[in-house]
Amino acid sequence: MFPGAATDPDAADYVVVGAPLDASTTFEPGTRFGPRRVRHYAESFEDYDRRTDQRFTDLAVADHGDIGPTDDVADYLAFLRGTVRDYADDGAIPLLVGGEHTVSVAGVRALDPDVFCCLDAHLDLREEYAGNPLSHATVTRHALAVADRAIVLGARSGCRSEWERASEADVTVVEPDAVADWEPDFEDERVYCSLDIDAADPGFAPGTGTREPFGLTPRVLRDVVRAVAPHAVGFDMVEVNDRDDGQAAVLAGKLLRSFVFAHADS
Fold first, then answer.
1. Is the dihedral of CA 65, 101, 75, 93 positive or negative?
2. pLDDT single digits (tens) 232-248
3. How far apart are CA 114 and CA 98, in angstroms?
4. pLDDT per residue over 116-171, tens digit each?
5. Is this model's pTM higher than 0.90 or not?
6. In degrees rounded to 5, what are phi and psi of residue 186?
7. Alpha-carbon distances of 125 from 29, 142, 150, 164, rounded to whole Å
8. Handedness of CA 36, 104, 74, 76 (dihedral sign)
9. Residue 129: DSSP 8-state
């Protein structure tokens, strides 16, 4: 269980759902261990948040546990979508913990947001990667089949066709140097917030599959999560693997808690 998640899922305001999919990672695999590591490294955190004067254990957080992947990724995403949708229908905010970024497709399809707001080193706007249309490199394109627009914060990597797609009106790319000054403009829009841990500079979060230097600092990530949380109908934290000493997982766990504290305080 995620530390501090002491509520029955049927009565929760927030539900952690582990999604250890590790099917299309293309450089260094290991995202199947992400949910387990995020839970483990979150055990050391204090219950109390001074900024919002809240205790995590008072915020009705539950943990569904992990939904183990199947051989058929499309079937897995459909099942995961149903689980996320069920919790949302009951009034809870789903908190997906991956697993590779592909699990975000299930979250977006379940929650039908107006805006897909993603922190990511990569644009993920490919139509397919290595012949696979359900690759972790296609997530933003899939999200745009549901959401009206996408905002990608911290992007610094993509092929030429992705940058061309990113120049269209329904995509906003905020490059790393500009993220600290970015402010949300969502008004009454419903937002899905996705955080790929590789948005962070690999010096802070080396435990991820496709590292990209010159990324975001933990403080900038935290500030963005806090700013987006009040507008969000769902959140995910993805692409943590087991190839470091816990740096990526501890950052991921802290950012997930930052989302919950900020959302509950809004």
1. positive
2. 999 999 999 999 999 99
3. 22
4. 999 999 999 999 999 999 999 999 999 999 999 999 999 999 999 999 999 999 99
5. yes
6. -90, -20
7. 21, 8, 10, 10
8. positive
9. B
